[in-house]
Amino acid sequence: MVQDVRIAKRTGFCYGVREAIDKAKEASSAGKLTHTLGQVVHNEGVVRDLQDLGIQTVETLDDVDRGAAVVIRAHGVRPDVMSRAEDRGLEIIDGTCTWVIQEQKELRRLVEDGYTIVLLGTPKHPEVVGLLGFAPDAIVVDDESEWEAAIPPRKRMALLSQSTQPPWKFEKLAAFMVGRAHELKIVNTVCPVTIRRQQDTLDTAGEVDLMVVVGGRSSANTKELTRLCEIAGTEAIQIESVRDLSDPSLFGTAAVVGVTGGTSTPIEDLRDVAEWILANAGTPEASAHAAELAHAALERAATPAGRTTSLPTPARTGAVSGAA
Ligand code: SF4
What we know:
Layout: E1 4-7, H1 15-29, E2 34-37, H2 44-52, E3 56-58, E4 69-72, H3 79-87, E5 91-94, H4 98-112, E6 116-120, H5 126-132, E7 139-141, H6 144-150, E8 154-161, H7 167-178, E9 181-186, H8 192-205, E10 210-214, H9 220-231, E11 235-239, E12 256-261, H10 267-281, H11 284-288, H12 290-301
Parallel strand pairs: 1-12, 2-3, 2-4, 4-5, 6-7, 6-8, 8-9, 10-11, 10-12
Helix pairs in contact: 8-9, 10-12
This protein binds iron/sulfur cluster.
């Protein structure tokens, strides 16, 4: 039975996501009619909290009334989306992550300099869609099996990455591209948050019997965390939220369980998962003190940089339920 749960350090939202959420909340509390273009983060609880503050998610600028505020999320958008928002007379609150802005600038410069661009990323991911607005002819590749066919030999090539791609994959693609280009420019745009999170997850995986990885099912950075735990020799269960947990027997004979999460997973979700495990798969003592132990695990893991938001958030309720 589970005696202890550890939450990996420096988890919770990355600074880009946190800043975008803070900007939306600040605009709303200043009395502006505020929207976010697309979900600011793929997390129902956070979207609900924002809705409670009157902040609406819209899928297109056509759904925003003239004069209202629209928050651009951390992934950024194509430049023509920005121009369209201006033309429609909307107040643009740019929550594009500073790291992504750097990527966009690099791409623009490389296109001007005549490089053929290869971008490692998930083709339909919003960050990649936005980046392609700066380099429309870029070749986007993901799995290694695609590289041979997708990347032609060219005289001058440049390689960049979506911010949350695994560093090992970027390095492998860079090595592959050496044989494809006469001149190869490598701009390492893998975000340092991604790299730190992988390291902290590996550290936690090395201390526990079982890992739980919390994040979107299609999130590349979440899947990578699961893969890394397994490479470290620690079995890992990947879930989207505490609602996916219903069977305490999943935790088998594990005495110490680690919890980590992707860059779009609020750190409070990790606490809820820790509490569920302790309450439902814990020893009688751990189960009796599940809430306090989970809170203590969160306190040990949370750093100022790992906080979900710097602004007050309404209390979240009903996140932890008993075993089904
Ligand atoms: S992962 Fe990094 S680059 Fe992407 S939004 Fe977060 S902080 Fe910015």
